[in-house]
Each structure stands twice: as structure tokens, then as C-alpha cells.
Amino acid sequence: MSNKVTVIGAGSVGSTISYTLAVNGIASEIVMIDINESKSLGEALDIRQGIPFCSPCSIYAGTYRDAAGSDIVILTSGTARKPGQTRIDLAQVNVNITKSIIPEIVRYAPDAIYIIVSNPVDILTYQFCKTSGLPENQIIGSGTILDTSRLRTRLSEYYNISQKNVHAYVFGEHGDSSFVPWSNATISNIAIDKYAECLIEKDQIIPPLDHEEVEAYMRKSGAKIIERKGATFYAVAISVCHIVKCIFTGADTTMTVSTMMHGEYGVEDVCLSSLCIVGKEGIAGKIVAPLTPEEEDKFRHSANCLKEVIKSLDI
Predict the structure, then answer these.
(1) Active site residue 174
(2) What is the tens place of the pLDDT at every residue in 35-75?
(3) What's the pTM value of the predicted model, to 2 decimals?
(4) How do 72-75 and 4-8 pair as beta strands?
């Protein structure tokens, strides 16, 4: 069975996604497209020369025409965030770049599922929904899937437990107005704030979990990494490849991705992250997880923050 993925943008994020797809045998065909053709040719060749040690995969640089027949298209193109710059600062620049890409790629791959990764991801996902003409189930913003992974990483370190036992999510904007609905956070189905008192072995003292400290860690991680090494690309590549793998396996999987809101939590006409079901057709459904009134207010606040930015843009 052929699993064809087109990756638009051969920068650090796009190239690392392509590499991760190939090494893990997730895709059997990968097309890399970049305005800098030399860059996409070099990246594709570099990955291709290691394929004999991986699952068979055809990976090459191409044009929009080569995207025909793609099952999934991943958008990573745009200007990267610089130290001290917010994702929203990138808005109009990357909106303009995406504006030029949408008609070209949709013409050749109208049936593909689109995963938007470029920042500001929620706004570009909204732009795609409004201007591409594609059904909304085919459009997925990577949203807070990376934030959720960062949250689970921090909580697993705090309690010295496997990340797979931690079930907690980040909702809202992939940015400063995101929040953690702590009312839904658990470790092995135990409410996270009660987990420590449920441990029989008391040989280590676990202080009460500081929710604000954990949320600050989650929100500031990207900026800290950019400050230290200039860019983030490993964790986001792994996160995006998880979405791709879930689509290709066909097993419906819940995750926090950015989609168009239609009244969930009282929010309309904006894209941001909540719990969604992702399957072989893209967005298979949504889960309106129960939130406290305070958490619902935070969700609406995040939506309003994004709407204010959208008003100032030429989508």
C-alpha cells in the first residue's frame, strides 16, 4: 500500500519531518517542495542515501505537480520565529506566503489531508479553512499537540513516571493564551493532584504540583530552545509524524489539534485546539470534554485573542 506524503518547506522543520517519516517507515513516498529548489534537492538526497538501512521509501524533491496523488500534505513553509519574536509577530508575513501556496497545492492534491505546521498555526489553519475550498475534515492544524507533549514530559519528570501514563492536555491557541484544563489531567486515571497521596511508598516527598509553574514551562519551552539553539524542530517533527501515523493506520486517535470551531464551548469561526478524533479521513469527530466554568472562560479568551489578530490581517 502506497502512503504518499508531500512536505512543503525544506527548512529545519520540513526536513526533520521528512527524515522522521522515512526513518520510521511511515511513508513510502515523500515529495519535498521548497522555493529554494537547491535546498530541497540537497535535503532529499541526504535522506535518500540512508534509505537502504530503513523501510523502502522513495524520497525526492519536486514541484506542486509532483504532489498529485498525495494522501497527506504537510505545510511547514514560512519565516521561522526568531529569538524574542512571538508566533503572532509572524502572522501577516506567513499568511502572505500561504496565500500563494494554497491555490497551487490544492489544484494538484484536492483529496489530500492537510496538516498545517507553520506559525501562527491557528491563523494559517483558519486561512486554509476559509480560502482553500476543501472540506474542513481535511484540514488539521498541528495546534497544541506539541504543547501537550511538552506538558506530559514535564509531568512525567515531576512524578518520575512514564509519559504514557500521563494524560493531560493543552487547549486553546498554540501560543501565550493556551491553558491546561487541570480538571481532566490524570496519571493512570487518578486525578493528578491526588496522585502523590495515592503512592504507598513514601520514601520521597513529592511537593504539591504548581500548576502555574508547569504551564509557564510549557509555554516558554519553545522560546528557550530558540534562544539556545536558534530553532525548534525535533519535537515538532515527532509530533507531526504521530499525526501522520494515526491517519495512515486508520485507528481513530484522540489528540489536541487545531480545527474550525462551530459552537464548541461557545466559540465560533476561529481555529484553535481542543480534543479531536483523527483517523483515515482526517478529522473524524470532536470531543467536547467537560471543563470547569473557569476553564471554559479561558478557552473563550484564547479564541478572542486569535480573533483580534485575524481582524488585523489580510487573509
Answers:
(1) yes
(2) 999 999 999 999 999 999 999 999 999 999 999 999 999 99
(3) 0.95
(4) parallel
